[in-house]
Write a structure and sequence with these properties.
By secondary structure, this protein is of the alpha/beta class. It is built from 15 helices and 16 strands. InterPro entries: AB_hydrolase_fold, Peptidase_S10.
Length: 451
């Protein structure tokens, strides 16, 4: 009996040790279902435990630079939402593989290499954050809730722990990047890293700057949709002038007086004009929004409309395959159901990060801010507006930038080491619609070359 209890205690201790040491885990992925042959690049997936007792388990995909990983920059990439998996960035925007073609026949979607991957120049960590995004999960109910500040704290803790297990990358130039809603946490994370370095936190992170695409930044940016719609010919000059006069530049309904009947009537006319316009890219067919999708679209729907919205759902078919989850080293039973963009237990606590940009500018960090110029969800005019609010001198005046002799967009640079660029024909977000142009833009900027 004594021996029985002794063995039981030993098993409990061993079980506890196994659980605690497996909180941070990583493994190389050499083959992926849907891709023919071994992967010609280094892919690693894993979990890093953060928060109290490591109750938040953050999942990541890491791809080494395909050029010179020992010296090339390292970038942490966060997809927006909040709640959209970073696999969006990997498979649809800036990663080395994408789903092949538009057609879907009900079998496992196939993957193919693309030449415009940003991993040609940098190593990238695609992080599923906040908790509940993608394959990241919470081990307690309390840990399943997060907000903007917690998201940023978790990302900073993640990076410090990731560097502990990957010390060979500590000296590489480091950048924080993201798009859409990540316009909120990215400058906060960058600021946390900078403050941590100044405080002497270990490891010292060789922070150089940050990158943002079509970023959410401040609440007034929705007012610029009216101006964008007029510039794109979606509303008449007469309606635009009447809107500006009657609403006095404020078009958000919660800030318009109930007695301002003319403004509200003009807004109704505006809504009628843009009804059926795809906000993410005004030239694309309107196919609805991922969050409004009750179920995965059928193959017929995927093939009937060449919609980026439906194309983005191919990953759902792919992830459903057990062989895919096994190849990615996913822990069984940790999430209930994987969705590309999940509904989270998340609270948005910040809606204006202009002060963070101001502080980072004062510290001398470089930044690239870009916008697809056909994005009405976060119009490029709104991004230009908050950049002007920083009150820095223009060092390279507004001009076109070109690719293969053709205008690829427009750019302007400032004395705070910030570069703004539009990607001609790009939507929300630019790399998904214009990969070649976005690749050229990023390659020049990360190499300290003018666009």
């Amino acid at each position: 009996m004594i021996m029985y209890w002794f063995l039981t205690i030993i098993l409990i201790i061993c079980s506890h040790v196994s659980t605690s040491t497996s909180a941070n885990s990583a493994g190389r992925v050499e083959y992926l279902p849907g891709f023919q042959g071994p992967l010609p690049f280094y892919l690693e997936t894993g979990y890093v435990g953060v928060d109290e007792n490591e109750d938040v388990q953050l999942f990541y995909y890491f791809i080494r630079s395909e050029s010179d990983p020992e010296h090339d920059p390292l970038m942490l990439w966060i997809t927006g939402g909040p709640g959209c998996s970073s696999i969006t960035g990997l498979l649809y925007e800036i990663g080395p593989i994408q789903f092949e073609g538009w057609q879907y026949n009900g079998s496992l979607p196939t993957l193919t290499l693309i030449p415009t991957s940003w991993t040609k120049m940098v190593s990238i960590i695609f992080l599923d954050i906040p908790v509940g995004t993608g394959f990241s999960y919470a081990r307690t109910t309390r840990a399943s809730h997060s907000n903007d500040i917690q998201l940023s704290d978790h990302a900073y803790e993640f990076m410090r722990k990731w560097f502990e297990s990957h010390p060979e990358f500590v000296s590489n130039p480091f950048y924080v990047g993201g798009d859409s809603y990540s316009g909120i946490p990215v400058p906060i994370i960058t600021h946390l890293i900078s403050d941590g370095n100044e405080a002497g936190n270990e490891p010292y992170i060789n922070l150089k700057g940050y990158i943002l695409g079509n970023p959410f930044t401040f609440p007034e940016q929705s007012n610029y949709k009216i101006r964008f719609a007029n510039g794109m010919g979606l509303i008449s000059d007469e309606l635009y002038k009447s809107l500006f006069h009657t609403c006095r530049g404020e078009y958000r309904s919660e800030y318009i007086s109930a007695s301002n009947i003319e403004c509200r009537q003009n807004l109704e006319l505006y809504e009628e004009c843009i009804d059926g316009i795809e906000e993410m890219h005004v030239l694309e067919p309107n196919c609805g929004h991922p969050r409004n999708l009750i179920r995965i679209p059928t193959p017929k729907l995927l093939n009937e409309f060449k919609c980026y919205f439906y194309r983005s759902q191919l990953v759902n078919y792919w992830i459903l395959e057990a062989s895919v989850r096994e190849a990615l080293h996913i822990r069984e039973g940790t999430i209930r159901e994987w969705t590309r963009c999940a509904d989270l237990n998340f609270t948005s606590t910040l809606d204006d990060v202009r002060p963070y940009h101001q502080n980072l500018s004062m510290k001398g960090y470089r930044s690239l801010i870009y916008s697809g110029d056909h994005d009405m969800a976060i119009p490029h005019q709104s991004t230009q507006a908050w950049i002007r609010d920083l009150n820095y001198f223009v060092t390279d005046q507004w001009r076109s930038w070109k690719l293969s002799g053709q205008i690829a967009g427009y750019t302007e640079s400032y004395s705070n080491m910030m570069t703004f660029a539009t990607v001609k024909g790009g939507g929300h977000t630019a790399p998904e619609y214009k990969p070649e142009e976005s690749f050229a833009m990023f390659k020049r900027w990360i190499s300290y070359q003018p666009l």
